[in-house]
Please model this.
Amino acid sequence: MRVRHARSRATATGTAALAILLGSVCLAGADARSAAADSGTTLPISADWPRGEMVVDGVHHYVFISDPKSGSVVVADYTGRTVGRISGETGATGMALSRDSSTLYVALPDADAISAVDTATLKETARYATGAHTAPLDLAIAGGKLWFGYGAYARGGGDIGSLDLSGAQPVVTLNQSGGVPWESAPQLATAPGDGQGVLVAGNKDRSPEELAVYDVSSGTAQRRAHRKQIMPDSLGGQEDLALSPDGQEIVTADGIDDFVTNLRPDLEGAAGLRSFQIQGEPNAVQYAPDGTLAVGVRYGTHVDTYVYRPGDSIAIRTISTGDYNLVEPHGLAWAPDSSKLFLLTSDGASGKNLVLRSYDDATKAVTRLSVRAPAKAALDGKLTLTGTFGLTLPWLPSSLPIEVTRTDLASPKGKSLGVRTVWLSRDREFEIEDTPEAGGKVTYALRYPGDATHAPVTATATVEVPRNRTTLTLDGNGTTVKAGKNATLTAKLGRTWKERKVSVYAQPAGGAKKLIRAASVDRTGRLAITCKVTKNTTFTAVFGGDARTEPAQATRLIKASTR
Model:
């Protein structure tokens, strides 16, 4: 592992050695903060090259994934379920969503055009030609215009163009690279929300790496910085790049050299910037609108994605997608409200199709909670629940709220016991007391609602609470009656909590058991039953029990006499 910034070789070597030591300490506990997918669904997109990009629509809750192989854009919902496909998008690759989420723009390199898709109807509404042999590849919206990287190495190199849709007619302007001789269509990035009017361009998949920063706030690209050979000893090619919401940090994923390049907007190094602790080969970077940074890696040690809060060097959360489920290059995207992180990965099981995975509260640390309870407890007796939080960074507060819900026979849908404020011990433990009011299986759910830096978590524990016993008898007017005559029996039920219903069944010899009466007993606890007897018959009285009283039953055999 190496953690690098753009600096001299000597400085980088020393810092990398320190980063390895710090990283091993940090990542040894990664499982405590690692999260499993909230959802993951296989997409109807082959994992073969070339592969497209991913854009999230927070208004309609769509995730758009371009598929250049089929010339289409697959539409999934937030759970990953495919809900549509936009066809006829020749060579669809780069995408950008309008600020109001009403229009999806798709780069069509095979058609030398950019299409506009209505996100409500999922239909193409317009197509804008960008010029012969331009082959637009990547898109970004900034400064009130749609910018695109275009060109190819085989066609003499790349450049930057813009599409202005503010007037009566669309206006395409090419050759805006500011003198930067891009080898191929550059990859573009803007700050989430476009609050800075800054456009960053990078030489995607090329070595040496190359970056340029443009001010596009006026609608015209003005080059502010340019740098080639970002890392002196890098042999990799840039696979992804991102610009922070405040426009003050640029990160790129090398994909081979196992580090994330971290630069200021002037591209003159990283003095005062953070160092990221990462293991693996970064190939995807993406900022959330709130400034949280996600870094995807290949071949990580049990971790595929790291999540960093603004200014932090240690990941607040790590994500593991399982063996061989590799994060795709440029395979990260945030929901516009920062509530969800989406990952595009390979399918380690089959390797045939791509998988869309989503994670809730990805900007927060995963919180671990377990609850211990006694195996048995007495009805109306006090019991103690012991909760234990796992090691979490950042640290949990010393006191926090716990929502308690009890589910039992009296409250099968659960009953809130309110919010308890608990104090954590040095071992991150706390205790909650309760008095069970119903018997049987009693389940307690303890929920920590989370806070600004910790995700919510719920843990449960079950206690067996013996119910009170009652008596049930079944008496008759003798043990024998003449065949064809009525037998009269009386069921008598003892003390119970609420339920007073008794059911009586009759089963003639060789016959089926049938219900002959079900009713509540009288004030003395009695229920009379009259039944014609033609054969020896077994009568059974059954009390089903209630929340505080155990079930009970009684039987009586009445013989049928032929004399």
